Amino acid sequence: MATGTTERFMLEGPAGQLEAVYEQGDETPRFCALVCHPHPLFGGTMQNKVVTTLTRTCRDAGGAALRFNFRGVGQSQGAYSDGLGEAEDLLAAEAWLRHRWPDLPLWLAGFSFGSYVAARGARILADNNRNASHLFLVAPPVHNYDFASIEHSGCPVTVVMSEDDEVVPAEQVFRWTEETPLAPDLIRFPDAGHFYHGRLVQLAEVARSRLPKGAAAGDG
What we know:
- The protein is of the alpha/beta class.
- It has helices spanning 49-60, 84-100, 113-127, 170-179, 200-209; strands at residues 5-13, 16-24, 31-36, 63-68, 106-111, 134-138, 157-162, 185-189.
- It has one domain (5-209): Rossmann fold (3-Layer(aba) Sandwich), CATH 3.40.50.
- It has 5 helices and 8 strands, in the order βββαβαβαββαβα.
- An 8-stranded mixed sheet has the order 1-2-4-3-5-6-7-8, with helices on both faces.
- α4 (170-179) links the parallel β7 (157-162) and β8.
């Protein structure tokens, strides 16, 4: 059973306070991790199973892991902002992590809508010489958001996509991964739906393989 620290708190965001959960193990962290949740208008929160799976995978591998509710979700103040304001929320969360652990590499992840926010955030961070160490995108909704405008991330990119996703058209994602200058490493999941029910253990294994070098393997 995992031990360590769990903190539930509010951090200062650009549109008001943001509800957040911070987790780390007993040892001094080897890296930081920030995970973004799916669409706020369709029930997406930081309690989503993919989000909590990725966060805890990072924690168990020796990371300092942060997840948070975008503006207008849960106790977070503000209102939905089509991914643009949410990217500003991500930057506020990243700044909180950087202040706490200024010298650790940052692993940045997002699920569905959260992957668009994470990708935008990675580009902005790179433009400001604060590159993430890795960008991990699960089911990126390339059919609904302007992923084409994100031409650099400043770090390696992994895309995880179910071949049987009932929300995001898989073939459009596969085509995007071939065309985007991000040149992501594509991991295809057969027989898995959008929410990876029954496949979260395998998703965690893929995430562990993409964590910063020197991170402990953990047991998930």
